[in-house]
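hiii so um. not sure if this is the right channel but i have a protein structure encoded as tokens and i wanna go backwards to a sequence. like what aa goes where. can anyone help
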């Protein structure tokens, strides 16, 4: 059976869409108020470092191996399988969370009269279809959709700077309340969401045609995502002011509503919903595909497509049954999950795994030297 492959540009596109995903509509870093852009900038630098750590983990585990196998090599087979299963359930939960994010987003912005469960079901049916078509379709789709999203964002940014309501003074003074709000915005929220979530891409490295090319240039995908979020934060504060941007649930949508270029280009918010939902759809698919192929491997299924319906059914049940109050949903997602869940799966376990694998590599090298001497 031929192994499906994706190239560096396709995976980089997936990373860009993934990191922009729900973070582009939720207005990240607003805890830092006027200095939101600075908080995102610091988180981007840390995010690039995190990305390189995950690449180092994959290299230490052995290129071409699955995430499950890497964890087994580090922690022994039974413990590694248990930890891998927990990771795939973690991806399942995050897929449910992002589904909830976009159901609330679509419900509030355009489809007020449509029940949230209908929107969630529609989203997950599309995710199921993409997962069924396999990784190559996901890669090619991401490449095309990234171009569409970035083109749209560039146009929005250009139009914004022509608005009379945009004031650079809204961003001043810098560090008005000191470093404390920035630190609170960065740790643990911004480093875990969206930058730490790239842990899921360890499940995708095995599909790369040339991993060596990817590891040299992939950091640029994280940088592009971070710079985009920085510019969006500047636009939100410059147009709405920091207090209003923090007050609105979806501040960037309110910012886009102000666009009126020569009384001709107006009401871009409807197009924005479509473009941003595309990013959310890809993010849900990335989490889901990683969980599906991982659990299919653990349960030794010959065709991972058999896992699509059970996996996404559980995603739907969690999202529909437990994510109905948006205020509670946001509080859990931005305050509780980053501190008690993300830090464990994004930092504690990967760093422990990396240390163990590097230690085993050093022991093997010493044994080889001892045999030669």
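sure thing!! here u go:
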């Amino acid at each position: 059976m031929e192994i499906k492959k994706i190239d560096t540009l396709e995976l980089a596109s997936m990373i860009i869409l993934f990191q922009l995903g729900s973070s582009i509509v939720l207005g990240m870093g607003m805890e830092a108020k006027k200095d939101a852009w600075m908080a995102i900038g610091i988180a981007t630098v840390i995010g690039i470092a995190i990305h390189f750590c995950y690449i180092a983990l994959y290299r230490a585990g052995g290129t071409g191996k699955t995430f499950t196998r890497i964890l087994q090599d580090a922690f022994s087979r039974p413990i590694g399988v248990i930890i891998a299963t927990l990771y795939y359930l973690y991806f399942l939960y995050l897929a449910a969370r992002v589904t909830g994010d976009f159901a609330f987003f679509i419900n509030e912005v355009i489809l007020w009269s449509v029940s949230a469960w209908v929107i969630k079901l529609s989203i997950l049916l599309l995710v199921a279809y993409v997962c069924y078509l396999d990784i190559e379709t996901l890669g090619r789709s991401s490449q095309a959709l990234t171009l569409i999203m970035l083109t749209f964002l560039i146009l929005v940014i250009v139009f914004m700077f022509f608005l009379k309501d945009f004031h650079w003074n809204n961003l001043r003074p810098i560090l008005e309340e000191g470093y404390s709000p920035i630190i609170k915005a960065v740790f643990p929220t911004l480093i875990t969401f969206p930058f730490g979530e790239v842990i899921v891409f360890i499940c995708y490295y095995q599909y790369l045609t040339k991993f060596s090319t990817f590891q040299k240039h992939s950091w640029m995908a994280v940088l592009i995502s971070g710079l985009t979020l920085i510019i969006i934060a500047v636009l939100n504060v410059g147009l709405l002011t920091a207090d209003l941007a923090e007050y609105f649930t979806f501040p960037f949508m309110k910012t886009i509503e102000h666009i009126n270029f020569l009384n001709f280009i107006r009401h871009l918010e409807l197009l924005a919903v479509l473009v941003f939902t595309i990013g959310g759809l890809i993010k849900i698919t990335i989490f889901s595909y990683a969980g599906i192929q991982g659990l299919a491997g653990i349960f030794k299924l010959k065709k991972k497509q058999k896992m699509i319906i059970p996996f996404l059914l559980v995603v739907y049940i969690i999202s529909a049954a437990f994510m109905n109050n948006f205020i509670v949903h946001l509080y859990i997602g931005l305050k509780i999950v980053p501190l008690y869940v993300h830090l464990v799966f994004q930092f504690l376990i990967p760093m422990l795994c990396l240390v163990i694998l590097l230690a085993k590599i050093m022991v093997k090298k010493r044994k080889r030297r001892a045999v030669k001497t």
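oh and The chain has a mean pLDDT of 91.
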